[in-house]
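Trying the structure run again after the queue cleared.
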Amino acid sequence: MGRLPEAVSHLEEAVKLKPEDARTRNNLAWLLATCGDGSVRNGVRAVELADGANRLAAGKDPVILDTLAAAYA
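Done. Tokens:
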């Protein structure tokens, strides 16, 4: 629907409500790392979220590792 800032806001709230949910952290990190809209993209926050998700997953989830790589890029 193209409502990217709203999506970020909702995902940030979901992370606050359930900080131990690696999947939610990963979803937000992916959006922030790969968004084509430069006003939404935030590499620093993406790395923070993906690193946290990776720690929660004990470094064993390839999807999260992919997101972490994209965030670092």
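The longest helix spans residues 4-17. Worth checking whether this holds up in the mutant runs.
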